[in-house]
Amino acid sequence: MENLIYTKFENINLDDLFFDSLKSDYEEFSAWFHRKNNDYAYVLYGQDGIDGFLYLKFENEVTDIVPPIYNKHILKVGTFKFNPKGTLRGQRFIKKILDIAIANRVELVYLTVFKKHTYLINLFTKYRFSEAGQKQTSNGVEYVYARNMRLTVGDILLDYPYIPSTTNKFLLAIHPSYHTRLFPESRLFNESPDIVQDVSHSNSIHKIYISAAYNANILRRGDILVIYRTGDGNGPAYHRAVVSSICLVEEVKHTSEFLSEDEYLQYCTKFSVFTSSELSSFYRERRYPYVIRFTYNMALPKRINRRELLDNNLIGDHTRIVLEPISDNVFQSILRLSQANESFIVN
């Protein structure tokens, strides 16, 4: 299992082979690193050492780029590198960057990058970072990519992780055996961290869940899914079933829409917790006919359980949650009881 930790520079091994490419790109990197001894960075540790590094810095103006940026609350992605390894780790870092920006009410997020790093540029532009200037350095020209966090454009990916308040809302039940592998940041406090592994469906902003919900076909792009982790049998569902996360629907497909089993597997495998053999079984038997693809937008700070939902009249006594429509008022109550950061919600 990988570990993403927030630690001082002085605790990070600069001699790790991971940093060799940064030392090659930036002749002053080692000296800069030592000057940051008491600053903090996010470090991703794999089995063989460091696999990812992210340093963030808050600024009020940026004068070493053309054109400069003034009078804004700015978050700079100061240094960022990760070893992809085919597990969509980059999306996990993007989510971390944007979550921090929203939590701190940042107006603009930016990074500088050499044009040769096309993978990194493509990763950021997918979530509405665009070229905004240049920075002339002794190592060559770096290009500025920035995102205005005060602007939304009405697209769930370009606006990610913001959540529109005007779309339909649903409770979506997910079994505990799948829940934590899909939503690592929503792991319950009494669950082992070893459940979360360095695999695509854990790291990805995008998720796929296979469902038998009879009404899944009414879901539309942008609809809100409030994830409901069902009881695990280790105690009454009143206490063990909890609301954990907020997600947005990307699309819903019926199994019959796929032209072949291979097409179905290609669509589902990367973002789903299910194994290829499980998916093949679902495709052939059609017991779970709906494929729901959605984005993972927010982990709720306080996990309210079924008892609290009942006590606050947010669900009925006999409601069996599979895919349950909820009203705007119920959604707002869930956000309030969960102590959610309302900066994530936009009109």
List keywords for this structure.
alpha+beta, single chain, 347 residues, seven-stranded mixed sheet, six-stranded mixed sheet
Describe the 3D structure:
There is one protein chain. By secondary structure, the protein is α+β, with helices and mostly antiparallel strands. Helices cover about 25% and strands about 30% of the residues. It contains eleven helices and 15 strands. The protein has helices at about 20-25, 30-35, 90-105, 120-125, 175-180, 200-205, 235-240, 260-270, 275-285, 305-310, 330-335, and strands at about 5-10, 40-45, 50-60, 75-80, 110-115, 130-135, 140-150, 165, 170-175, 205-210, 225-230, 240-255, 290-300, 325, 345. It has a seven-stranded mixed beta sheet, with helices on one face. Strand 4, helix 3 and strand 5 (about 110-115) form a beta-alpha-beta unit. Helix 8 (about 260-270) packs across helix 9 (about 275-285). The longest helix has 15 residues, at about 90-105. The model is unreliable at about 190-200 (pLDDT under 50).
